[in-house]
Amino acid sequence: MPDSPTSTETLVLLLTQHQEPLFRYIFSLVPREADARDILQETSLALYRKFAEYDPARPFLPWAYRFAYLQVQKHREKSARSPLLFSEDVMDLLASERTHIEPRLDERLRLLDACLQKLTAQDQELVTSRYALRQSVEEMMTRYALSRRTLFRNLELLRQRLHECVTRHLQSEGLA
Amino acid sequence: MNLDSLIHAEIDGEITPEQHAQLEAQLRSDWQARQRYLELVDQHARLLQQPAVNTGRLQSAAPKKSPPLRWWPSLTAAAAAVACTFIFWPKHPIETEATSNGVAMLSQTMDATFTGTAPRSGDTLKPGTIRLTQGLAQIEFFSGATALIEGAAEIEILSAWEARCLSGRVRVHVPPAAKGFLIHAPGMKLEDLGTEFALNVKDNTSAVHVFEGEVIAHTDAQTSASLKQGMSLSSLKTTAVSPQDFLSISELHSLVQKRDTQRFDQWQQWSLETRKDPRLIAYYTFKHWEDDRWDRLIKNFTEPRRPSRAGGAVGASWTQGRWQKKEALEFKRPGDRVRLNLDGTYHALTFACWVKVDSVDKKYNSLLLTDGYDNGEPHWQIYEDGSLMFSIMYRPAEAARSARHNQMYYSRPVFTADSLGRWHHLAVTYDNTSGTVSQYFDGQEVGREISKLHQPARDIVFGPCEIGNWGLPTQGHQFPIRNLNGAIDEFAIYSAALNASEVRNLYDHGKPE
């Protein structure tokens, strides 16, 4: 039994610790869950291959983001014909500006949990259906007897309310 | 469509190519649009990852009522038909928020015996009568008031703000937040204005003494008296109070502390003997070695010593165990684990450990698992419904990889809201002749089963394995998160199936109180 963890173990720990921010980063560039998850996997693999180059004295995330960005570009090239992907210049802008505001985004997420608890029972149920149970649009339309349009309108309003709630809290803490 | 609606359409996957182009144009030209986009998308990503609206089985927040009319905009015949399918649609039952009608908790006990169902310290108390035949009990009301009760006593808890003393001696402390706390006693009603006082009820007469602050004593409907520091009052002259008769909270604490040390010393004595059991494969007591520079060594304490079976902690941090002097390792984050490598092949096994589970929040919550899942390898976990789950893998050489060949055994659910956050003893025994698996919770059998897939005489092996988590992932694969959420302060692995009384013995020698 070695005293210090192997590099694979170290990477595993780093990845588990940072999986969430990595996913969020990728998702901001490719806001489609399945694609973002694929890219996250590719990124983990790339990190594994290049892990020897990682300098443990430096923070892990910025290093990992570089790989994530490359994988996003690869994904873009593969599906270049999709009309629903952002062009490279917009992705560049988003990626670099996101790094600047990341501390504030983290701060927002901290407040998000409290805002979720304040939702009405109906809204909480909607969050559960959409995000925890991952129900399909059709399932949710049946469940709530709503048209597709109204369902998405409700989801939009729900997320807007959450966003406003977080912003309000930030302002009251003087951080906005 | 405005910017926000475009963003929402984008993340819901409902956007058309034209709208997407519109969104992209706005993002390209406007920093504020980008900022808004980044915020909304980040929020959505977080919800996708972990919606903080609780959905776990043990703690769930969701509406109590069926969806109100708002969700049924027009009850046309078609909608009514849909409504009916909804009613008969049990796939995802709407979970209701866990509730409790507790009003107080039993925070400490000292040599306490109760008549009727005996509460344990840490239990939530509902309104009702507590009959303490002997010993001491400390009750903390949810209002903030604390009562220290000396047996024999009979106390009726009415609410978080009100109690009745039927007999016995009680010392009550009421912080400012609980001002107005009421105690009924024969012949008087005491309204506490933020203070500390003692009450002695005997043969249906009461006497009260105020140590500090002020108490309003209502002796009947009309008369009330204000009692200040040092003053006493009796409903009958025959019952006297003298302040020295009452135990103070600090004395209780020092008694509890003394017992804590005593229990630890007893356990340690026993532990020194039990580690000589030749059937032990490994025995971890989670002693923190100050001189271990890496701070990560989990020594194996079997006698004779087998240092090669020491474990290595990853991530997990040191915390307090069953007693103040006992250390434990806490598992919280997805990476936390203790790595082991156990050689040898065996015909039987027993796993026994002391664990404090804070939450059963994953589908599988690891206790001890081998890295992979090859033939003869055991896995021991807590399943999402709070049951103990033991399984061992035997896959015939010719079998398809997809078919299930692991023998699985579940106990009845043992981790429920009131067993979380406390120390419990868990054990499982298995022998490869009879194929019987028995599982124990606090020394009691909670499951006994033989798998249909059992075939006698197949070896048990461990190899690389870990406590509190599952396995090193192979290259490039996602791995499930199974880390335990809790702490472990003793773990024993035997090469034999201990019998029920031996397991009971492990529990008795290790129980915290």
Briefly characterize the structure.
Chain A contains seven helices and no strands. Chain A is an all-alpha fold and 176 residues long.
Structure description:
Chain A is an all-alpha fold. Helices cover 76% and strands 0% of the residues of chain A. Chain A contains seven helices and no strands. With 513 residues, chain B is α+β, with helices and mostly antiparallel strands. Chain B folds into three domains: 3-87; 104-247, Jelly Rolls (Sandwich); 257-510, Jelly Rolls (Sandwich). Helix content of chain B is 17%, strand content 39%. Chain B is built from six helices and 28 strands. Chain B has helices at 3-11, 17-29, 31-49, 77-87, 249-274, 500-510; strands at residues 104-114, 124-125, 128-141, 146-159, 162-174, 182-185, 188-192, 195-202, 205-212, 214-218, 224-228, 232-234, 280-284, 297-298, 311-314, 317-320, 327-331, 337-346, 348-357, 364-370, 378-383, 387-393, 406-413, 423-431, 436-441, 444-450, 460-467, 486-494. In chain B, the strands form three sheets. In chain B, strands 1, 2, 3, 4, 5, 6, 7, 8, 9, 10, 11 and 12 form a twelve-stranded mixed sheet that branches. In chain B, a hairpin with a 3-residue loop joins β21 (378-383) and β22. In chain B, α1 crosses α2, α1 runs parallel beside α3 (31-49) and α2 crosses α3 (31-49). The N and C termini of chain B lie far apart (66 Å). The model of chain B is unreliable at 52-96 (pLDDT under 50). The interface between A and B is large, with 69 and 78 residues.
Average pLDDT of chain A, rounded to a whole number, is: 87
Low-confidence runs of at least 5 consecutive residues of chain B: 52-96
In percent, how helical is the residue content of chain B? Answer: 10-25%
Q: How far is the N terminus from the C terminus of chain A?
A: 50 Å
Main β-sheet description of chain A: none
**How large is the count of helical segments of chain A?**
7
User: How much helix, percentage-wise, in residues of chain A?
Assistant: over 70%
**Total helical elements of chain B:** 6
Oligomer: heterodimer
| End-to-end CA span of chain B | 66 Å
Secondary structure class of chain B reads alpha+beta
